[in-house]
Design brief:
With about 375 residues, the chain is of the alpha/beta class. The protein folds into two domains: about 120 residues, ATPase, nucleotide binding domain (Nucleotidyltransferase, domain 5), CATH 3.30.420; about 210 residues, Nucleotidyltransferase, domain 5 (2-Layer Sandwich), CATH 3.30.420. About 40% of the residues lie in helices and about 20% in strands. It contains 14 helices and eleven strands. The protein has a six-stranded mixed β-sheet with strand order 8-7-6-9-11-10, with helices on both faces. The protein has a five-stranded mixed β-sheet with strand order 3-2-1-4-5. Strand 1 and strand 2 form a beta hairpin. Helix 7 packs across helix 13.
């Protein structure tokens, strides 16, 4: 399966109403929905100064891509689970009377032969019009969502988004951007990797890649390997092989001024495990920096637990235990390749990128979020 790159370079959710709350002015609200290979996620937010405040949210593991790797199609059960989740999203959007929204689908709907038919069914049964976005836009929005976490000392930035069906990587050169302008320059990438704002030009995308391997697809490709450690090693090697032509992997890079920001459920779970959190706390995870040794220590712990131990480990959670090792295999491969031994953790992703892009385009943020 050839990675896409630019030219030249389980349970059914039940629809229930949330408790009543005082509603903000609907005209000030924005919504972003991300239907991925594994999860359906939505945020409803209101701009507040230079950031936004979350008014309502939804997240459910729907496993839309279950069986896609072998059949090439979305299964009837997976579509049924996803429709149930989307009906809850529809309820929330209607309750808050949201007008400004962006609803997108990614790798599973891009790849499935019946993806277009499924989205027509979604529109018919829920009224939600989901748009399948291209890998480049998915990569751009990952950069936008992580922009507030970029250090002012960073000259070379790698943003990594490990999804259920694909993994996006973007390498950005910031050497021509003033330190105080770097967050705003990265925000400008929402319009395209080649269409910079004249005021903040200089954030140069050296290369980007969308590898059609994520935690769900990688798991499915190696499901027949029985030995846990061998399966992990094979997954990591297989993913690394798909990156050999990606510029940062092919070139020798200086360690100084290089930053990796990673966004995914895998990375935030590894971070929570590193911190020893029994209950997940976003305020402790988002923006955390981990070293390669700390990441490797968590992964060795996961391997020592084995499949049954991971299934019951409260740090991992019941929705992620089957996907944590494919994600860890991708993460370990990435840390082997890049000239740094540190990873910045981002508990943010496509939904946040969609919200920032909408709000920036409408000029409703006073300024970009602080770095």
């Amino acid at each position: 399966m050839t990675p896409m790159r630019p030219n030249g370079a389980g349970a059914f959710p039940v629809a229930v109403d949330s408790p009543a709350r005082q509603r903000p002015d609907p005209s000030t609200l924005y919504a972003a929905l991300d239907l991925g290979t594994n999860s359906c996620r939505m945020l409803i937010a209101q701009p507040q100064g230079s950031v936004f405040t979350v008014v309502d949210s939804f997240s459910k593991s729907v496993q839309l891509g279950q069986g896609l790797e072998s059949s090439g199609k979305l299964s009837r059960a997976a579509m049924h689970r996803t429709l149930a989740a989307l009906r809850i999203c529809k309820q929330k959007l209607a309750r808050h009377q949201v007008v400004n929204m962006r609803l997108v689908a990614t790798e599973a709907c891009r790849r499935a032969r019946n993806g277009p038919a499924f989205l027509r069914q979604v529109a018919r049964e829920t009224g939600l019009m989901l748009q399948v976005i291209a890998p480049e836009e998915e990569a751009r929005l990952a950069v936008v969502s992580c922009a507030p976490l970029v250090s002012q000392r960073t000259d070379q930035l790698l943003v990594v988004d490990i999804g259920g069906g694909s993994t996006e990587l973007v390498w950005v050169d910031l050497t021509e951007v003033g330190h105080s302008d770097r967050t705003r320059a990265l925000m400008g990438l929402h319009a395209g990797f080649r269409s910079q704002s004249a005021n903040f030009a200089g954030a140069r995308v050296i290369d980007w890649i969308s590898v059609p391997l994520g935690v769900a697809t990688l798991r499915d490709q190696f499901r027949d390997v029985e030995d846990d450690s061998a399966r992990f090693a094979l997954m990591s090697w297989y993913f690394e092989e798909r990156l050999q032509s990606f510029a940062p992997a092919a070139l020798i890079q200086a360690r100084e001024g290089f930053q990796i920001i990673g966004t995914s459920g895998t990375i935030t779970t590894v971070a929570a495990s590193h911190l020893g959190l029994r209950r997940y706390d976003r305020s402790k995870v988002d923006g955390l920096t981990m070293t390669s040794d700390q990441i490797d220590r968590v992964i060795r712990d996961y391997l020592a637990l084995g499949p049954e131990g991971r299934r019951t480990d409260p740090r991992i959670g019941k929705d992620r235990h089957a996907l944590i090792m494919p994600g860890a295999a991708i993460l370990q491969a990435l840390m082997r390749l890049w000239p740094t031994d540190r990873l910045s953790v981002a508990d943010r992703g496509l939904r946040e990128g969609l919200l920032y892009a909408q709000m920036n385009s409408d000029g409703v943020l006073l300024d970009t979020p602080p770095g």
